[in-house]
Specification:
Elements lengths: L57 H13 L6 H17 L6 H10 L1 H15 L7 H18 L4 H26 L3 H20 L4 E3 L5 H7 L1 E2 L2 H28 L7 H23 L4 E2 H19 L1 H11 L1 H6 L4 H27 L1 E3 L7 H11 L12 H20 L3 H28 L4
Antiparallel strand pairs: 1-4, 2-3
Helix pairs in contact: 2-16, 3-16, 4-11, 4-14, 4-15, 4-16, 5-6, 5-7, 5-14, 6-7, 6-14, 8-14, 9-10, 11-12, 12-14, 15-16, 15-17, 16-17
């Protein structure tokens, strides 16, 4: 798998190429100068970008940027530029948009949708889609609320039952997709209807179960660490973790005899992350402090990113999304990976559903409905995960959720209607898919897809 967690490239043996030997004199072609002479056809192999040594300094970054653009490896660049433009526009229209209070509230509000989007990323990496995540989130929220409030079950047991319910849904849908062969679109579309009906059945005639506000799920969402040391401590820990992973990766690459990042490059990347992390911590501390929900969201992103990028399981997921037949011939258990991915997706939908229930302090007939499904899928796609499979990252969920949440927050401040919000969000999603399609076409032209 590539270093940035994108589509795995086909590994090949780099040999010296075909050796040319002079023809013996008795086999030299006859017939004069016009006689055809056999010519060995040589093909220029594409160079694996992981073996390219980037020139140090500013010129090296410029050259690397040009190489990525020409080969269609845009990564997170489009969504980062879009986020900057969105913040600049709304910040110029109303100064309260970039206030510490609004940004802090935004960081909490995106958690529920962002959690669901993380699971969607896993399914998209296979080149598939899950249309049931909205209903699953509502179902699991209803399971927790009914067990906790109506039946008085221990709160942690109720939470585990809700998460287990999400995993069971993924197991069922993954089985029909991977073993029976029903298309994922059809399986999850049926699930979207079926799980919504089950949620209504669990909620009963009242249709709404209000949370007490003192339950563990509500506390996970509403708790904010007011001490400034908390936000700054998380920033220090994040930067240190990133620096350690970069140094470890560089040492492993040198030990393997392949190019590694220069110390100056690592220092620059770490410094850029430190600026972003401490600026975010400073902004949060200007209001109330570090929201626990945001911290949990970041932990899920980091852990699942490690699962995708640093484990054999993650490499198998990317391989399956890049070339299913090649993955099967390589000995990968395709049904097992597919089922596990759908289980991860539904479990993350359950986590997101719990946070969304804590946000509105209830589980009702509208839980998991509305535009939640579209926003969750849009967040993953807008964040940079390819609809064609094999390329994406859990960080896509964070970036995409920030884009969608920023659009909604800015328009609410400006007093614009939901109709305008939907249209603009749809245009942003369309732009993300167009960029993804163009990037894939460029990669094919460059022999990289």
């Amino acid at each position: 798998m590539s270093e940035d967690g994108n589509t795995p490239r086909r590994e090949g043996r780099y040999e010296d190429g075909p050796k040319h030997h002079p023809l013996p004199e008795d086999t030299m072609p006859t017939g004069g100068v016009n006689a055809p002479v056999p010519v060995a056809a040589e093909a220029t192999p594409a160079v694996d970008p992981r073996l390219i040594v980037r020139q140090e300094g500013v010129k090296g970054y410029i050259g690397e940027f040009k190489r990525r653009i020409t080969s269609g490896e845009l990564g997170s660049l489009p969504v980062i530029l879009a986020l900057i433009v969105i913040w600049a526009v709304f910040g110029s229209l109303n100064s309260s948009f970039l206030s510490a209070q609004n940004l802090s509230n935004l960081s909490q509000q995106i958690v529920g949708t962002g959690m669901i989007a993380i699971g969607v990323v896993f399914v998209l990496l296979l080149g598939e889609i899950d249309l049931s995540v909205g209903s699953v989130s509502g179902l699991c929220a209803a399971i927790f609320a009914v067990l906790d409030v109506t039946h008085g079950v221990n709160q942690w047991v109720a939470m585990l039952c809700a998460l287990a319910g999400g995993a069971a849904v993924g197991l069922i849908q993954g089985f029909f997709f991977a073993k029976v062969g029903v298309p994922a679109f059809v399986v999850t579309l049926a699930g979207n209807l079926g799980w919504n009906g089950l949620m209504l059945q669990i909620l009963g005639s009242s249709g709404t179960v209000n949370l007490s506000g003192k339950d563990n799920v509500s506390k996970l969402y509403t708790t904010i660490y007011g001490q400034q040391a908390a936000a700054y401590g998380v920033a220090v820990a994040g930067v240190a973790l990133f620096l350690g992973s970069q140094l470890l990766d560089s040492r492993r690459r040198r030990a393997a005899g392949i190019p590694s990042r220069a110390p100056g490059d690592i220092a620059l990347r770490t410094g850029a992350l430190a600026v972003i992390a401490f600026l975010a911590a400073y902004t949060l501390n200007q209001y109330k402090g570090l929201p626990l929900a945001l911290l949990i969201f970041l932990i899920f992103i980091v852990v699942l990113d490690f699962l995708l990028r640093r484990t054999s399981y993650g490499r198998q997921v990317f391989a399956l999304g890049g070339n299913i037949e090649g993955a099967r011939r390589a000995g990968i258990n395709v049904p097992r990976i597919r089922i596990s991915v759908f289980m991860i997706c539904s479990t993350m939908a359950a986590v997101g559903g719990l946070f969304l229930a804590a946000q509105i302090q209830s589980a009702s007939q509208t839980s998991g409905g509305g535009n939640l499904l579209m926003n969750s899928i849009a967040a993953a796609v807008i964040g940079g995960t390819s609809l064609f499979g094999g390329r994406g990252s859990t960080w896509s969920a964070l970036l995409g959720a920030l884009v969608i949440g920023s659009i909604q927050s800015g328009m609410n401040i400006e007093g614009l209607s939901n109709a305008i919000q939907f249209m603009i969000t749809g245009l942003v999603l369309l732009a993300a898919v167009v960029i993804d399609s163009l990037a894939r076409r460029t990669q094919k032209a460059a022999g990289r897809a």
